[in-house]
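Trying the structure run again after the queue cleared.
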Amino acid sequence: YDGVINIWPVTGRQPHYQLESGSGSFAWTADNLIRTCSRPSSILDRNPRTGNTERTIELPAPGYWELYGPGLCCRVYQADSQVTADIVAINGEHRISGQRPGVQPGTPEDAKRFLFCPTQEGSACVVFWPSHEFTWPSLIDLADGQERKLGVAAVGGAQQIALSPDGRVLAIIGGGQASDLGYLAHYAHLHLIDAASGADLAHLLIGPNRVSGTALAWSPDSQRVAAATADGTCEVFDATHFNRLITSPIHRGHVKSLAWHPAGTRVASAGTDGVINVWDSSTGEVLLSLPLGDE
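Done. Tokens:
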């Protein structure tokens, strides 16, 4: 909220560089610049050491744009009582390569819980407008604007979505499906959907305590997916055979995020207990704990 991007080495505790940010989102580009959105309608690629702008990309309309990785940008706004989203793709040559204006999520409350992830090549993206009702994710082709639903069954209470690094499978962490009976529909589930056909691959119950799902992350090789719950449980699943590989009580509270080490041997998780834990992805053993501080 202070409008500053801090950059520091992984072995240090003090930032080496600071940049003012035009919005709350940023991303690293392939040529190691910091990409941010600047009002009213520009993307700035800046040198992280000097802060100088080295490249500017003009967006198609003014507004409060947010980055979702280096290749996709979105703005959500309300006009004539209708909530609308505009989505823009940015290619490897740092030019706008696709647009999908006028995606309508439903209510303003739905728009606040917008979930979004790009395909690996940036030509399409998955959009999910979670609500209290059961809804479907959609795959939007940014070249022709075509949109199609993914999955056979609607999903409730989604918290995060992510495409596998190879682009083949969409993972959703959240509640159950409309067909689940009673309170089972509100318990933590991991949903895996074939991104090409839209077929449901797996519908997996997460954790032993029947609480909500909160976070997920794919392994770098797309073979495993880590999932977490509101009670601090973390699990790893085989994304091919859909069996649970490990389950472990990693945190003492809500798990907010997960990230894999590039080698696939460790996972880092951050929780509301104020700790980042680094743990073995094969055993669940916590190898390192780092305090997050007072905030």
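The longest helix spans residues 108-112. Worth checking whether this holds up in the mutant runs.
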